[in-house]
Design goal:
The complex is a heterodimer of chains A (282) and B (359). Chain A is mainly α. Chain A contains 13 helices and 2 strands; from the N terminus they run ααααββααααααααα. Chain A has a two-stranded antiparallel ribbon. Helices cover 24% and strands 37% of the residues of chain B. The chains are: A mainly alpha (282), B alpha+beta (359).
Amino acid sequence: MRFVYVTLKYLAVCLWSVFVIAPFLWALSTSFKDFNSVTGGATYIPWLQFEPSLEGWRVLLRSPAQGGVNIVEPYFNSIFVTCSASLISIALGTLAAYALSRFTFKAGFIKNSDITFFFISQRIMPPIVLSIPFFIMLGKLGLLDSLFGLILVYIVLLMPIAVWIMVDFFNKVPKEIDETALIDGCNPYQAFYKVVLPNSIPGLIVAGLFCMIFGWTDFFFAFILTFTEVQLLPVAIVALNSSITPWWSLSAAALVCVAPLIVVAFIVERYLSKGNLSGALK
Amino acid sequence: MSLKVSNLSMKFKDEFHLNDVSFEMFKGKIYTIIGRTLSGKTTLLKTIAGLTNPDSGEMSLDGVDFGAVPVWKRQVAMVYQQFINYPHLSVFENVAFPLKQRKMPRPEIDTRVRQALEQVGLQGFETRKIQALSGGQQQRVALARSLVKEANILLLDEPLVNLDYKLREQLREEFKNIFSAKASENAILIYSTTDPVEAMQLGGEIIVMDEGRILQQASAQEIYENPKTTKVAQITNDPAMNLFEGEVVDSTLVLTSSIHLDLPSHLAALPRGKYTFGIRASGITLDSAGFEFQIELAEISGSETFLHLQHAQMHVVGLLDSVQNFDIGQTVTAGLDSKSLYAFDKSENLVASPYGGTK
């Protein structure tokens, strides 16, 4: 019975792994094909089924004048904008979440839960609703088509995620731990950064990961709020498209685009599985 | 050194958490606050620590306004009923935390932390993570952290309540010695509990609380012998003191239509009339010359058996010094030791006690 259970379990894991890994393998294989290999039927194994070509990757590094789409600059722009916006969102969002978790706010009928919902509501609205106000605001501030303008907009988009995750996380950290820190000689700020924050690392990592994913993969605002001066990676990838869909360079770009998220996920996974807080407060 | 609390009150919505609480506590003594859940014990401790602000009232330490001092500057230490420690720090770092906050020199921190860990029996555990400790060990770490601070006031909020029975018994004994040593260092120890046995074992002075109000403050012996009201009698006894209506008629005590007792000497002076009578479980035991009761429940606890008995409208709990099995509904004969009876008037205040205490 146990053998059947274990076999079924591993079978399910294998099937799921194929489901997850297959698109990556397909993209990897396609990125080394040329026009003829892509249009010549389904082939997967280089050298045996098709002759590998680096054309798809070269296009990404060539300048537009040479018929390519240079994604190096958009790549670093995306890293800069995503990391800056995520860090600021986490910093501000964590402070807001801590306040919402620990203090009671009341202004008429507005309470803590309403304020938390206000943050989340920014994500509920369809992006198109926000696009025109953002466009006008950035235009008035002279921040259209600039990295700083994009960072500001992304902070608005990412902070609700940070607040949402961290409020929930802080609510699970007993208030008595803050009180103990106060009794042990910490002022409220020290209690926060010396005791509460170190015990909230898993929450910070989850929030940071979500912020990075949402920031990194945003296309809509990166497309609407930039023109010629600044370009982010998703927009640069779309720019690859022409009358003939270049599957080889699109696949290469997709792999390049997803690589940082995979690296980040592998790095933070070990911290998440540690469960720093779980089981610590009996 | 004395901690003086005057007229502390705190209301949340329509409920009093503290209701005109006043007392004075002196250095070198252990004070036990006993009360049921939500009686205001934790609120009082947190108010003394500075974690909650009362709506009104004053606190002073040696005549200096204590209420205005922020928590982190008060010389208090507190142990919670949940085993609250810093999970990201090792045992040593946990205990050293308050000393590091004071920027104490490293060698002194080392010495004091090791002394505190030795005191609570955790030497050798310095490098362990909190997660790797059992519940009892975690509470020892919390206690060591509160001791190392050498605070003027040590607050212990039901520190043993979340431990299993055996460990609670063991730690109660160990902690008692630690507390006595701490008290001898001229600190004020305030221990809150819901457990009458714990309160009595710790000795010292007992403060009985209910619904945010202090019902009685006296020595453990005085509380045991002369509980001021029926509520005090119930809160400070486990099982709660049996209470039932009765009437003093001539030289007889009429409890039900068929339970009549000779009036004991300590109740003889009572004016004739109706009273609420109280008797501890130990005052009711099986006796072939007693009265017929039906067994509602028989609880075996350690080497004793608690019998929940019913006779007409009278429901009482009796105690057997042995383990015996009974069937529910079984009829037994039990006697009430009239010499152990307490009498309370209509306002539920004590009017006569076997130990001579009166209103």
